[in-house]
Amino acid sequence: MRKWKRQFALEWNHIFRNPWLMGLPALYGVLYTWFLSAVSPLNNFFIEAYSFHALVHTLTLGIVMLLGILAVRRDIRRPAYEWSTGLPLSYGMRITAKFAAAMAYLTLFSLLAAGLFAAFSYGRGIESAINISHGVYFFLSYEISYVVTLALAMLLAVCLPNRVVYLIGFCAWMFGTFFMQLFIVERYNLYVLRTFHLSELFVEGTRGYELWGYGTDIDELIRSGLFVLAFAALLLTAAVTILNLLRPTKHGARLWFTAGLSVLLASAAFAPYGLLWHDRYSSYNAKINDETILDIVKLWDERTEMFEVANYDLVLEKAGNDVLFGTARLEIPVSALIPQGKEEITLTLNRLFSVSEVKANGDPVSFTRQGDLLSLPWSDALEQRESVGLEIRYSGKVAEDNGKGLYHAFVQRDNVLLPRDFVWYPFPGMRHVYAKEDWSNTLQLASMYKEMPFPAAEYRLTVKGFDSKLYTSLPELEPQGNNDKPHGADFKMQVFQGFGKDGISLFGGPFVEVSVPSLPSRIITTPSSRALAEHVLQEWSGYYRYFASWVAEFEPRIQQVGYFVTKQMMNERTENGMYSIFASHGGDNGYAGLLMTEMLLGTRKGSFHIENTRKDIRLPLRSLMWYVYYREAEGLSHKDIENGMADFRMLGALFHPDSNEDPDNLGGRMAEAAGKAIDAGKISQVKEILNYFYAQGMEIPLEDPDGPVQASPIPYEAWEREWERVMGQ
């Protein structure tokens, strides 16, 4: 051990007394500090820091590659130092001492990455526990990348004594990072190979996001990290073995035993990682090969069969191993089942869940499953009642990979994503959960391509055993008797209850709630997006005060907003008074105006069905509400608005109409008439007209052609009549 320490001290001095090498960590720290200090308060701090690491950390691997090659070529593979092979110091000691000294130097970069992030993040008011968690993740990612890259560089230097090793080292650096990322992993969806990526932080997927990021990949990161460390040990062992073969040795048996053992350890370390991806690919390929899952083209021709449900009583409990146990009680009017004209009752429940028991009116009944369908026999005895009470017990572990390094849904520790379209509770009728893209051989949730209806019912949802507070679109009942419990103790059980017509989704993670007294809504987001949420709420509250001052029958349509910065593929939507924004990057994209539009006017998802503005002017009317705002509250003239001084996303139906849908430019004529009236001091009359149509409904929902009509079109003639009535007085 004394010999090794002296060799380590020698290698330490070679590195830490080199001013050029010592200047690199200082330069890194200066650049990192400058970058973090320049991050806008409205941007997500974690995402911005990760983007810096994804590039700069990959560049530092070039330093690692060069350092590893130089460490070996300085004496071991240098002809002028052949005499050193006669020293009483084994190659194993020399290689490990060089490796340890180089890692001690490279750890400076890791410490700067973690320490500066934690310091700046704490300065932005983010909790220390969260800062430490993210800082540890950056530190370990740096260290693991440095370990395997350094071991590879030293092996290359041992195998290639010629100077061509510098070129080969450069190629290995490029291939193991940028080339592998762009041309192997992403192009061919071979995400199983990302464990061989030299940079742990330059990997496509969810890890670069604060929400549902690396926390959802903890199991994979642990297994991958163990394999990478074992593989690095294999590379170092290979280097020592090659060097020992260059000179006679009496320890040949021990040499080959050590080499073989390192191969076995690396193989054994890869087994858990390989099994993880084997399970993922098996589940994914089973769905791809399932003929009951339709292609997206055929999906559009399929109708969603659905019958009425009066009440849902759902209980969802999470066990310690992240397995979910669910109990669903459905009260179904018999009148809703008889018109089905079938010999069985069909329900839909995601195939990941196994059903253990089904009861009808308290009596156990048989059932069959095919894919996502659950079929129950229909009996004449059920017709004698006014309603049928079904009780379904099911369980399963949810962590479904979509084949691209992302997830359809998951429940992992305190991270929960159970979207309604995943059908995590029984759906009345038959619906398609998944859809295939035959041309790309990929699978997605069917809702990504086609909106599907949900039954309107009274819901009661009880969740138990979850590690974090959960959020959904239903109102949460106040916990009883929890006043003396510590913060977070009531998260183990939450009860939500209310009327829902858009299905139920469940979200859990490192969320914070942000609200202001002047606005009857709140934003649920992550700590790094708190400043943006506060900014949006302040701007949104200004809009709210203005419209609430004169819109007569204003009833806010959304009570809470989920602002989720994540890579998970989800559509923005309104669900029972909760509007969810899924963004792949931070920053303000005019969210206050978007949210005010949803709160005041509701959705416009069905606007593509409006083919003639003369028959339906709801789009121009929605824009006129904002036109009046910009004229009165912002003090803009009609010419100012035409010149682009207002947000044209709110005014597109007035100033940029579709010539096919509005060939007569009715939207422009309505704006011009309203503008002239406002200039003449008749803004109160314009508001009276808009209130008249607002009471009729300006929402444009996406309606099922075969379903009930939810909103009525407003023809242009109605506008002319009301305008003449009010302005002619």
From TrEMBL:
Keyword Isomerase part of the UniProt annotation: no
Keywords linked to the UniProt accession: Membrane, Transmembrane, Transmembrane helix
Transmembrane spans: 20-40, 52-72, 99-123, 135-157, 164-184, 221-243, 255-277
Domain of life the protein comes from: Bacteria
Protein name (Swiss-Prot/TrEMBL): ABC transporter permease
Taxonomic source organism: Paenibacillus woosongensis
